[in-house]
Queue: 2 jobs
Job 1
Amino acid sequence: MSPVHRPSRVSMDNLPDRVRIWEVGPRDGLQNEASIIETATKIEFINRLTDSGLPVVEATSFVRADRIPQLADGAEVMAGISRRAGTRYPVLVPNVKGLEAAVTADAKDIAVFASATETFAQRNLGRSRSNQMEMFAPVLDRACVDQIPVRGYVSMCFGDPWEGFVDPSRVVDVCVELVERGCSDVSLGDTIGVATPGQVRQLINMLVAAGIGVERIGVHFHDTYGQALSNTLAALQSGVWTVDASAGGIGGCPYAISATGNLATEDLVWMLDGLGIDTGVDLDKLITTSLWLAEYLGRPVQSRVGRALSK
Ligand code: MG
């Protein structure tokens, strides 16, 4: 155990007082595991994350079992978790059938998954970039009737493994359309982890200029090139206060080349604790959870904080 097991607290100007961490480990993380995780373990994972104080724990997906067999037990997971009042448990849905299954499982929040680029839209959604909205429109219409908030994930916001760097105006177009069609907020995915802080600030500024306020923007960074925390700090300095992360850094993307490693939640909490920014998360409980999951998965924890503290 390192003699330093807590960051020193020194604040900086021009940062939010609090950050909402949108935990994606049980969904984004586990869907990319090669093996199938037992339902009871998923439930325990979500309950432990809840107990660590995370305000949002994305729980599962309601997608075709043959497409993502790792999350075929979405209904059982939603039925088995201990929901805490005030904590949100969003689920990913690709279509109205998925939405109906999510509602039956008493999901109160959903998310849809869009692409900023043509190639990824074709590969991941089987649609052209311009046609992807036709896929979401019935989901968004129905969610609006049922008053269910919908988050719009936008992948490949900064770089695409087939197309190279992404023109931010294309990302803005997709985000504006998602919001106009009823998404309550958008999450900007750096799916292959190539973004740098200037790009982050540029895109956020462009979104704000297009009428999407910072309160509706989340950032979803991958640490493939070691940039996730730098990019997060740039987003916070740009006014964003919702940050996606995955306990233990689990998850990548099965359809994207070299898309490794979501930003690890404990690495994020270490930085935010150090800056004196309130997250509501108990770092000890979170690290214990990530180490517990790593042991279950049979490999070392991916996060830097987890590794530093488990030596
Ligand atoms: Mg991710």
Job 2
Amino acid sequence: MPTRFVASGSNARNLQVIEGPEFAFVGRSNVGKSSLVGKLIGAPKLLRTSRTPGRTQMLNLFEARDDFRIVDLPGYGYAKLSKKHRASLQKMIYDFIVERTNLNGVVQLVDIRRTKVSEDDLRLARQVLDNDIPLIVVITKIDLVPKTKRLHHVSQIEKGLGIPSRSAILCSAKTGDGRKELYGRLSEFKA
Ligand code: GDP
């Protein structure tokens, strides 16, 4: 089956459910989520990469070729949105994660350049773990940090999020690095 866009929704109840494994992808706006998801499902144009951060505020469900679903959640933490608007987006994301009972895991993306983990990122990671949902952390845009400095950045981020050392997956949508590893990790959670 080819990769395809299935549906949009504004909450867990009005977004179609299709049987089989499903993963939610979350992260701050501009973290590189559309680029990475596009690369992962082999359909880079399916997700607009040049949209205004924060504008796309729906939950978008995609069916990937390899028998799993991805829900692309709105990016959070966009500084140009009002505090109230940011809080309502955060709530939408949180409610979705808690109410979407068919989720096999949440894939949280963080930018390798931000060694100081943001409040938004930390809150989200906690919400996922507190609800006993598998959390898969992906560190994006690794091509933007020289190899010699990557380990330091990665360990700062892992510490900041409170996840085990060396558990994050390092990816670049630009070079394709990490794609296989991410696929492999998702497969572990498909059952
Ligand atoms: P989103 O808001 O999280 O969906 O982020 P986008 O996928 O739209 O990416 C935001 C910006 O980062 C765009 O200018 C992308 O070209 C750039 N970008 C995304 N992934 C990478 C990457 O792996 N490496 C580099 N160098 N740039 C990236």
